Every structure is written in C-alpha cells, then in structure tokens.
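Data availability (excerpt). The following record was deposited with the supplementary files.
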Amino acid sequence: MTSSILPVYARAPLTFESGEGAWLVTDDGRRFLDFGAGIAVNALGHSHPHLVKALQEQAAKIWHISNLYQNPAGERLAKRLADATFADVVFFTNSGAEALEASIKMARKYHAAKGDPDRFRIITFEGAFHGRTLATIAAGGQKKYIDGFGPKVEGFDQVPFGDDAALKAAIGPATAAILIEPLQGEGGIRPVPPERLRALRRLCDERGMLLVLDEVQTGVGRTGKLFAHEWAGIEPDIMAVAKGIGGGFPMGACLATAEAASGMTAGTHGTTFGGNPLAMAVGNAVLDIVLADGFLDHVQQMALLLKQRLASLKDRHPAVIAEMRGEGLMIGLRLHVPNTEFVKAAQAEELLVIAAGDNVVRLLPPLTLTDADVLEAAERLDRACTALEDAMRPPAQGAAA
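Predicted structure:
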C-alpha cells in the first residue's frame, strides 16, 4: 500500500509496539536493544514509570491552555532549570530547532536593544547541525540541507571546525555571537576540547559577543554532567536544549542569563504549544530523576564500562572500527566500512545504532541502562563486526562461482 506520509524519511523495515528500559519489542515479537534512544531523546528509556505516571495524571487534568494564562508547572520547571544552571530565564519550545530559533533571535535582539541593530551575524562551525528550519539550516551550513530551499538565510558565517585563525578572521563589527555544539552529534561525535571552549568564552568576553551553546543532543545528563559545557568549567550566555529534557515527549527550551535576554520583552517572541501542561509535567518528572543523588554518577560508570568494552571491540576488529570518540553515553565509532552497512549489521543482531557524519555510528543509549545492557550490546556489536569482516573476505580459492 502506498504511504500518505511525505517521503522524506528512509525508514528501516521495523515496527515497534512497546518498550521497557533499553529494550524495544517489534510487532512480531522480536526484542531489540535500543542504543539510539530515539536520537538521544529517550534519556530515561522506554515506559519509565515515573514519567508515565506524571503524563497520565496531567492528561486527566488539562492538556493545553496557551501562554495567555499562568502556568505553575512551567514556572516550577523554569526555576529548577535556572537553579541547576547558569541561566536566569527560560523560554519553553516544542523542539530543538525552535529552541535554536529562540536563541538566534535572542542573540540578535540583544545587540539591537543595545542600539546596534546591524550587529546580527553569528559565527558557526562546519559539520554543525542545528535543526531543519530555514534559519537553523543556514546556521548549520551543510549544503545537503540547504540546497533547493531558496536563498540561504543571511547572517551566518561558517568556519572550519577547530581552526582558530579562521575563527578570528571571521569576526567583524557585525558579529553578534558564536554558536557551537560542545560535542557535534550529527557531524560525527566530534568533541570540542575543554580548552577550546574556554578560549571561546574568553574571546566572546573580549569582543562583546554572546556565546550560544547548542546542547540539544548533549544536554540533560547525556555526557555524564547535566550539560556538556560543565566539563570545561565555563558558562554560556544562551543555551538551547531539547531531546532528553522531555524524555520522549516533544519539548525544548532556550535558557539565558538576564543580560543576554534583556531585549526579549513582551511580544518579541512567542509560541502556541510551547510550555504546555503535558510537556511541563513530563519535564519536571525527568528532572526528578536526572537531578537525584547518584544519577549522573551512574551515567559516568556506565560510560566507563561501555568505553572499556568498545576499546576491546576495536582491538579485535581493526578492519571495521577505526576510532572511538565521544563523552559519557554519547559515543561515536568511526568506521572503515560504510556506516550504513554497520547499522544494518547491528539491526541484524537486534541492536539499534544511528549513523552520523564522518562515517560514524552513534551509540546513544538510555542513561538508565544497566551493566547487563552494556555487556549484551558489546556481544551484539562483536557479532555485527564479525559478520562485516566475513562479508569483506574474498572467496576461497576454488570456490564455486
């Protein structure tokens, strides 16, 4: 039967009916170990009882009120996020792209409100991914996402990843901010070294620019800290988050200092669905878990165990795995074989992983995974690598044609 869904996705031939923890069950009863977590979204795994309870209780009360009225659950979530981070204020959205749009607008508006409306350009980095709106594809700068959608949105200057000379050369009187992912996700799990993040913070301070971080994929415990920039000991002026903050429910947020947000006055920005009661109930439930004593320690322990197993896997399969990189439970394997083939080989072993740039596969398991989940994933990855190696071997001499 022909699908009525717009054909913009290359979907795998898998249909999942239920899930629990790090596991998904297909409509024909197969159990898959989920090391993609909905692209780092299902931070607390599938069917987490605390999240299910929060959503069900709120669903029986009220779903939507708009932002014309008071929202106590939203006030509570904003205060908890502010107390746990650098931020003074929070704007809730429905997605990471919307959180980035709010961040971009805020950075531009900051300078305009200070009397410098021509200072609107934002420096970004090659390989970045910031979303699918017209502004965020321009910010990401990747040709494959921009082509065919008309003139590129003005105001973004891409520089090579890690090129300090190019970065400084790109700064001019119109530069308002620097936007960067502390660890590129779609770009291939490429970390920004802590010393480089600290240098960007100093540069922004020296030049009167804002530092905007995209922590949509890296945030809410994914790297073993609440937010990835904490490893560098710095604070941004503005930060976009999403994915894990909703634990599977669509929501995002733009966090900012009071100074960076000073231009965002009543009527300058808005959203119909952002911050709705369902999302706020789930977001608060996620923070109940992630901010609990010992949770981030658990993430770091699982990350260490997984990295140890992956290092051993790389040693056993050097023809398949070229490099392991990443932080916490956001790990990339750069490959000698096409990453699409690796994804298929893993699926054949009933393990889900996700392709990324630079011929990388991403491992983004739920943060609640167990020792047993890690060991099982390592075994399945081992079998997938063996299958790929077998496929690469030439036929034996004298084998039938």
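Summary of structural features: Residues 295-316 form the longest helix (22 residues).
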